[in-house]
Design a protein that fits this description.
heterodimer; A: mainly beta; twelve-stranded antiparallel β-barrel; 6 helices; globular; B: alpha+beta; eight-stranded mixed beta sheet; seven-stranded mixed beta sheet; 15 strands
């Protein structure tokens, strides 16, 4: 059976769609063009060309600044917690790309300032009594002033699977917060993703190994899976395991040429000092330390140019 | 049949898509099952409470035909001693080291051993909280006193409280006994209604601890541990106090109840402007100390046997000071006017019912080292003013006369 699809531009009663298409084109969403360009993989070893980039609501801004060099930072937090990662493409041969990751930051103000500029009063103490009455001499722990340094490598290999592309990426990264001053480094003992994310900012170190698979299933739809193993420095006296693991699965849907919606879920396994009651042989209760499982939804809008 | 590389990749591509989709569905399903909740909503009316046993039992004295039990009720401030934590607004502490917690618990245990209660009721005791270095304080007191059994009724269980970095918290009321606890439960109380939903979700869920203690010869005692709301502005505390009164009235066993009612006695001479209150707002611009409503405790004095009758308090602040049980400020700190901290109000009580009574002359509040305990001839052996922000109430509970 042959079907005929009348192109939109030949249907006068749908001129409002053409107007909408024109408006969306101005925002980078062009339905007609979108069908021609496949949605590329994200978070690979790819380094964008000069002035090309990407930014999300939650994902950082990535901007190509020279051939083979990209800068990455979160615009919303940069003023309070200056930081940047330089991504340098060291090798591109055939389907292989190898990129170095070099990062530095001074995140402390973000944990010492009160909202709306920082997280003091939520994740860290706000020290109201000390600030009000220094003479009372109350000690108040605040995160030490920290310079974070990080180094890593990312390797990607592209595959062609029956007309659709897929990318496998391996990432290895180590970050360390170098504490300055007399405040000791301490772990937040927070939820696993927060603990992992902010460990260097607390003056601790973090190592991460991640393996990801990103595959196109349609021209504007991709699936992504990633498994990570992390080791995060904790306070030894509290006896928490430094090992964390996570598994992510999600989908990217192209909303136009430049915009995509990413949605998924990430499972974390970590030692968050949880305990569970069990029975002794004579019927009494006892507590046992258990690791915490948690699942967090993920959602973002990514704009790529 | 020879499979071409293209066919192999096609097959691999289909399998990887299926695997990714299965992973995504599995993760989303994991949202519903098998994960630790962010907090425990404590969604029950009455629930079984945990019961622990000392690793090596200590021989307990035979209660005999007419048991007379030494009882202590004490809010132990999660083993923090006089360390000024941020919510009291005289300091900024959020977390203790393990060394600090064990030193404080050693002092608490020594004070308990010195009085040697047969029944100990504690409030604000922690099982696994970040602020007390994740020390199991119930187990610690069991192993460092001559009490053999403990039940723990949890009132606060949150994976992480994002307030000043407080972190994980597991706190509740615990009842300790030298004699077997044969049944233990926690009885839910009403929650505050004056908080936003997010704060309410992660806030304390008050509950009464109830334990049945077997005293031998067929005798069973019901022990209640209470700790009502302290900061509400919507009448929650009063409702909780009334609920506890109703629970005690309907108890069928001889009983005793102790704890922190967070309310002044009906004869209290001072109702406001306590010496440990701030002259001006320092920590929270919108916190207002809720007014005390002592009349809500009058039914307890009408219907039950108090360890300390109202007549013992007297009518003046000077006479009532002898039985004050609480001070936010310790003796080594001063308030805004330069006065050192001291006990300044009564919030803790012991009651008995169903025919039970208290041995005259043995009820008291253990305030200071060297103080006589009633007219018993005993003296206080510990510096309680430095051990917690509450002083223990003690008494000798007597089995109902003539009861089997």
């Amino acid at each position: 059976m042959t079907t005929h699809h009348t192109p939109i531009r030949n249907q006068p009663q749908r001129t409002w769609l053409a107007v909408l298409g024109f408006v969306l084109a101005g925002l980078g969403l062009q339905p007609a063009k979108a069908r021609a360009q496949a949605l590329p993989a994200r978070e690979t070893a790819e380094v964008r060309d000069r002035w090309q980039g990407q930014v999300g609501v939650f994902n950082p801004l990535r901007l190509g600044v020279a051939k083979g060099i990209e800068l990455e930072a979160h615009p919303l937090t940069f003023l309070v917690a200056p930081h940047a990662t330089v991504r340098v493409r060291h090798l591109q041969r055939g389907p292989w790309t190898l990129t170095g990751l070099y990062s530095a930051g001074v995140p402390t103000a973000g944990f010492r300032l009160a909202p709306p500029f920082g997280l003091a009063g939520f994740l860290t103490p706000s020290c109201k009594v000390r600030d009000h009455e220094a003479a009372r001499g109350n000690d108040c722990w605040q995160p030490p002033w920290v310079v974070t340094l990080g180094v890593g490598a990312q390797a990607s290999r592209q595959f062609a699977l029956a007309g659709r592309d897929a990318v496998a990426t391996a990432t290895l990264q180590v970050d360390k917060g170098i504490a300055i001053g007399d405040q000791p480094a301490r772990s937040l003992d927070a939820w696993a993703p927060v603990e992992a994310q902010f460990a260097p900012a607390m003056g601790l170190w973090r190592g991460r190994l991640a393996l990801a698979w990103d595959q196109a299933v349609a021209s504007r739809v991709r699936l992504r899976g990633e498994a990570s193993l992390l080791v995060v420095e904790r306070q030894p006296a509290l006896g928490a395991s430094p090992w964390l693991s996570s598994v992510y699965a999600g989908a990217d849907v192209g909303l136009g040429q430049r915009l995509r919606l990413t949605a998924g879920a990430i499972w974390w396994n970590a030692d968050q000092h949880a305990v569970q009651a069990s029975k002794t042989a004579d019927g009494f209760d006892r507590l046992e330390r258990v690791r915490t499982h948690s699942v967090w939804p993920t959602l973002d809008l990514l704009w790529r140019w | 049949m020879v499979v071409s590389p293209k066919q192999r990749w096609q097959h691999f591509g289909k399998r990887s898509v299926r695997l990714l989709l299965a992973l995504l569905v599995g993760l989303l399903a994991g949202l519903l099952t098998g994960c630790e909740g962010l907090y425990d909503p404590q969604d029950f009316d009455r629930d079984r409470a945990l019961v622990f046993r000392r690793s090596q039992l200590v021989q307990a004295p035979d209660p005999g035909q007419t048991p007379a039990l030494r009882v202590m009720a004490w809010n132990v401030k999660y083993g923090a001693g006089r360390i000024p934590f941020w919510f009291d607004c005289w300091g900024d502490r959020v977390q203790m080291t393990k060394a600090e917690v064990t030193a404080n618990l050693d002092a608490l245990a020594a004070a308990i051993v010195a009085y040697d209660p047969d029944i100990l009721i504690t409030e604000e005791i922690e099982l696994n909280s970040r602020r007390s270095a994740y020390v199991d304080q119930v187990r610690y007191l069991l192993e460092h006193t001559s009490l053999n059994y403990a039940t723990y009724a949890e009132t606060w269980d949150s994976q992480y409280v994002a307030s000043e970095g407080l972190g994980r918290i597991q706190l509740g009321n615990a009842i300790f006994s030298k004699y077997p606890i044969v049944k233990a439960e926690r009885i839910r109380q009403v929650d505050r209604t004056d908080q936003d939903p997010l704060t309410a979700a992660f806030y304390i869920k008050r509950a009464v601890a109830r334990a049945e203690v077997a005293l031998g010869q067929g005798k069973t005692l019901a022990v209640y541990g209470v700790h009502t709301e302290a900061y509400d502005n919507d009448g929650t505390k009063q409702k909780q106090i009334q609920q506890i009164h109703q629970l005690l009235q309907t108890e069928t066993l001889p009983w005793l109840a102790g704890g922190d009612w967070n309310e002044l006695p009906p004869v209290a001479a001072r109702l406001q402007d306590f010496l440990d209150e701030r002259d001006s707002a320092v920590c929270s611009e919108d916190f207002v100390q809720p007014p005390y409503t002592p009349e809500v405790l009058q039914p307890y004095y009408n219907d039950f046997a108090p360890a300390l009758p109202l007549a013992a308090y007297g009518t003046t602040e000077a006479s009532q000071a002898r039985y004050f049980t609480h001070s936010v400020l310790g003796p080594d700190e001063v308030n805004d006017a330069g006065q050192p901290g001291d006990w300044n109000r009564t919030l803790d009580y012991l009651f008995a019912g169903k025919g039970a009574s208290w041995l005259a002359g043995h009820s008291d509040v253990l305030q200071r080292l060297g103080q006589p305990i009633g007219t018993s001839g005993e003296t206080v052996q510990s510096d309680f003013l430095r051990l917690s922000d509450h002083a223990p109430v003690v008494g000798v509970w007597q089995w109902p006369a003539g009861a089997p």
